Every structure is written in C-alpha cells, then in structure tokens.
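Comment thread on ticket #2218

A.B. wrote:
> Attaching the input chain for the structure job we discussed in standup.
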Amino acid sequence: MLKIDVIVVGRLRTGPFFELYQDYAKRIKWSLSLFEIEVKQKSPKLAEEEAKRILEHVDDRGFVIVLDEKGNGLRSLDFAKTIGNLQDTGENHIQFIIGGADGLTDEIKGRANLLLSFGQQTWPHMLARVLLLEQIYRAQQILIGHPYHRE
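C.D. wrote:
> Ran it. Output below, let me know if you need it in another format.
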C-alpha cells in the first residue's frame, strides 16, 4: 500500500482549513501521515531550524515532492499519472513538503525528486495543505476510475 507523508511548517488546529483537511484526509485510502513542524522562537536562522526539523522526517528511500511556486505545474490528470507511475515502478513512499511563510531552504528544495507548483501565485501554507490533500484524493479517484474528476 502507498504511504504518503505530508510534512508542513506550521500547525493547523481549528477552523475551516482544519475541517477541510480532515475531510480529505478521511477520504484518502492510502496510508496518510501528517508531520507539523513548528519553531517557536523567531531567529535569523529560522529557515535553517525549520529545514533541520523537516529533514528529520524525510526518508532517504522516499520520493520527495516539494511544493514550490517555481516548480512544475501539473494538471490533475498528470498529477494522478505521476503517482500511478511511481506506484508502477515500485515506489511505495511519497513525501510532500510544504514550507511556511518564509519558504524553504535550498537544501530542502535540493532534496526534492520533484518540485511541484499549484500555479504562479503564492498560496498561504494552510490553504496549500488543503489543496494538496484535495489533489491527492482526486488522484486516488482518477486512478481507480471514479467519476469524481471530470474533464
């Protein structure tokens, strides 16, 4: 079974984004884990501290997808095909990384097997988390032939 990790900077505890995230998380049949990174104190080395904590969760054998505005924009069908192709080639662990307000370090971006963009706009990281889960759910539905996705 495919294992998916979502590694994010920031905590989401209540409110509409939390509820949407929970809704999509329940719909996803693949194994799904959420790792929230939170650095309490602001410092000049905040990005480096966040990167260190993110890397603690990155599996050397996992396929790492970093969300970045400069990444590849994939249509939903292509995103689903990417996940399907990874599964077909024996990949069983995909890790998605979403940065916080200050973005991600070059070290984290360099660790990515794929840089993925949800468009040229900058999205609040809490909303990007919901968008990611919706796209994972949509990919799941596309891959099983369910009519959730319409073209």
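A.B. wrote:
> Thanks. Noting for the ticket: The mean pLDDT is 92.
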